[in-house]
Amino acid sequence: MGLRGDNKEEKAGGERLKLLEGRRILLGITGGIAVYKAVLLLRELRKLGAQVRVLMTPFSTQFVGGLTFETLSGNKVFVDWSKDPLAHINLARWAEVFLIAPCTVNTLSKIALGMGDNLLTTTVLAYKGPLLLAPAANTVMYKNPAVQENLKKLRERGTVVIEPEFGLLACEEEGEGKLAGEGRIVDWILWSLHPKPLEGKKVLITCGATREYIDPVRFISNDSSGEMGFSLARTARWLGAEVKVIAGFTTAEEPPEVEVIRVVSTEDMLKETLKAFEEADIVVMNAAVADFRPKIRSDRKIKKGKALTLELEKNPDILEELGRRKRGQFLVGFALESENLLQNAREKLRRKNLDLIVANPVDVMGSSHHRGYLVREDSVEDFEFESKLESALHIMNRIAELHLKR
Ligand code: CTP
Known about the structure:
19 strands, single chain, five-stranded parallel beta sheet, Rossmann fold, binds cytidine-5'-triphosphate, 406 residues, eight-stranded mixed beta sheet, alpha/beta, elongated, 2 domains
């Protein structure tokens, strides 16, 4: 995931993006060995700026004591009604999001049935907002038909079930049942907190660098990380879109819950993009495409020799082709320019028949700040944020507004 460990979404100086600043998250914890992972999750939520209240089932406190959660959340931990006879009502009213992680199959089944046999399940009954369940269980227990039926029922009611992952489980079996990673859980929280202007819309995003091979081991390419394209995909999902990404080579982490199709060359990217283009409502061409390819690709590794002259031929311009085929799709391009930024961006907007072009000065490369312009035929808006993720959210929000206004 992208929110932890790789510093990619941290501001300069190591300070994290406060993506959840002030948001009120109720963290429910139920009794299974994965409770220890809830400690790290709570830490992550706090680092992202969230206010967190913790609600534990009595059994879960046998795995990790309430004092750990109390210390990390800065709030008293609720297990029963001893601290407040109206705790279920007050907690339910307070929360903007109610996440239960880990959620045992026992608790999710009780929730599906509408039972309120402890403070946690009773609070679920009193709560009206977005409910997110992150189950963790032994594979056989998770796949049990009764449990699966209950999960189906919950999904039909709009509860988000954050599917467990495949891996080595505490019972020493390999299978599906591992608590979802922190990155996925945090992404679902962000999803649940955003309005959904792109509900029902299909968004197609290209990103990363295409590669043109000279021989089996050498290629022409560029060092695009794919971070902006992946950030656009994450934020488009937060806004309710069904997202598909066509990615060349990338070093940034893939966005969770998004379909990513991998390609190598510009020609491959063109083929995959055209396949998905017809169905898309919004297309964002963020890939750093190799403009040229070797005229001849050697099947064998080229020997050193004294000198080497490569003849290159032009690759197709994917975006220009999309501009020609456009039938109502909202088409967005990117332009990275070292001079005459707005003039060049506008020229590309017209030549490629775009609805919007995002123009970035070259100094954004490798910078912790991100700035640029949203250029349309009749307007220019500037933007500046401390990270690509924040810029991506701004760009997707503007795309949603402009697309819906048409
Ligand atoms: N693009 C594309 N296919 C290409 C080259 C570029 O689809 N073969 C897309 C990029 O993904 C970007 C936009 O076109 O969204 C502008 O790319 P850029 O490299 O800035 O422009 P070019 O048209 O290649 O012009 P130049 O390199 O001369 O500035």
